[in-house]
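During the second year of the project, the team shifted from modelling isolated chains to modelling whole assemblies. The rationale, set out in the original proposal, was that interfaces cannot be judged from single-chain predictions alone. As a representative example for this report, we include one of the complexes processed in the last quarter. Its constituent sequences, exactly as entered into the pipeline, are reproduced here:
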Amino acid sequence: MKYNIDFDVAALALCLIILVHFLHRKSIRVSQTRVFAGLVWTCMLTALLDIVTVLAETLAFPAPLYCALNVVYLILFNALPFMYYFYLLISVRGYHAWSLWDKLLLFVPVTFSVLLILSSPLTGIVFRYTRDEGYVHGWGFGLLYIATLIYIVASVVLSLRHRAEMSGWKRLTVYCYVFFCSLGILIQALFPHLLVLQFAVTITLLLLYMFLESPNDDEDKQLEIYNRRGFDKLIATKVERQEPFHILVISMPNFHTLRDAVGAEFSQVMLRRIVEELQESLHTRELFCLAGSKLAVVVEQNKLELDRTLNAIHEVLRPPIVIENMHLLMEINLLQIDFPQEVSSLEDVMGAVDYFDLMQFENDDGQVVHGSADILRMKRREGQVLQAMKHALLEGTFEVYYQPIYSAAKGGFNSAEALLRLRDPELGFIRPDEFIPIAEKNGMILEIGEFVFRATCQLLAQERLWEKGIDYIEVNLSVVQCMQENISKKFFAIMDEYHLPHSTISLEITESTLAQEALGDTMRRMTAGGVTFALDDYGTGYSNLTNILRYPFHIIKLDKSMVWYAMENDTAMLALRHTVAMIRALGMCTLAEGVETEEQKKVLEEMGCEFLQGYYFSKPLPVAEFLEKIQEG
Ligand code: G
Ligand code: G
Ligand code: MN
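Output from the structure prediction step:
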């Protein structure tokens, strides 16, 4: 044989390996992936044809057959740099943002080459084949190299122009491509019998596969379904093509609790089981794991298909999941997103998917399908509230109201609770129950908390309230504030700035705050400095007795629900009476919240409750009214 085909055989084997792996992995077929598939197929066929043509020449195939094989081979071979450039173009620009220049550069050289090659059996421009001479290149063969060169240069220029958006690996792959192709061309020019060029191209393809196509990136390894990246890719493609679809997002709010109970390993087994059952019942492998236990199914827009999917989800998740004699009942929340009816942009689809987790659902049965329109409305509202808070902080329009607190021993007000109010010119009055959690989520609560604290200190100092019978003011602290390491230092500094006795401030925290390890030390440090602490909302949540014993609380605030329940239920009354007695015996005081009637006041005073707070005495009041109120006594 005139030629050495060993490199072609190796190239063929390598292509096969890439192709098999490519076809078996889980990957969302976006346009870029499709072009990549085309590249691999072309590369493999080229290597194969290179071998076949060599054999054909050696075995002296009939001339027309030999010519035809050569034509196909040359076309495929010359399509490779074109496809490579096509692939790069899609990967950096997407499918749409192409200029006319891009299109000309992409299609003209390849068309030119193909025409030259096709005409060769007649004209002999690229190659000739005659019985005496065999296969010889024509004068036009060099033109093919020019076309290839154009694509290679264009690829490099593209990667340089999009340097900023391309990862280092991506650029390196482009340079390797240039290097290997040039080396291949050089070697083959020097030693024409060594057919190495195809092998060089295949190596480049392998690099491309490893670094640009990132095999397996779309897959969740443990569950063997698509992951969030795969989901994002699929949805982005569908939105770009304006294909209508439904997404069903399944969230399992009690999954975390179950995991804490049964352990991470077992809960993973549980999740796998759920996924398998869903796949079986949905007859699909197109399931997505978006994060943790959040799953999603993407369905075509078709009423029957949607109903079938919803039924399948309920069928799998409504009954308890039974694993090793354990019956695990999943709570589920389902979100249905309709594109493009309800949401019409990629941003809104993703917004709804992400925001879904942050929502707290009123109904615990979890079987409700929530529309994404509602979610987006809530998300938008959250954005507006956030803006309103930013605005209020900037303009200083947050207002602090004060609700006087009655002391039974004194027979009048002895303190007050500072309560934040937000009135926005557009949104109107916004309740703290709504804006405080939003402020907590993005850290703004720190600034807001400081504002309330400072405003309270200022009022105390300016009015010298302790001389008017208000011994201290209670300021609510959020969990997030308590996570701050330097909170005691900061608060002492502010009090000192106003020359306030530290005992004029009492801080209200809730039980959930106590999960912060460091808080105990902070509380002891502040207590030593004269500040007192009150435990808010006692009687709801866990109301853990150890918490009362372990931390230095001065006052335990009995939640209004506990107070109200006692008024209508004898056993609850008994519980309240003994709670008050117990707290007193432990050397702390009780404060009853939500006192609305004379009757309630009497009962609570009689059972030994030291402090009372509620509408019976006064609502939370703006400063001026508050000052009037305490003047009256
Ligand atoms: O009275 P009102 O509706 O304001 O109180 C609602 C909730 O908001 C209460 O649980 C109260 O503790 C909380 N809250 C009110 N003002 C503040 C504040 O300044 N900081 C914090 N962290 N919570 C507050
Ligand atoms: O959780 P915290 O104790 O901080 O909440 C105080 C909340 O209780 C505020 O929203 C305040 O307006 C409200 N509140 C205070 N007194 C009464 C009352 O007598 N009745 C009712 N319904 N709410 C009250
Ligand atoms: Mn409070």
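The chain has a mean pLDDT of 90. The first strand starts at residue 127 and ends at 130.
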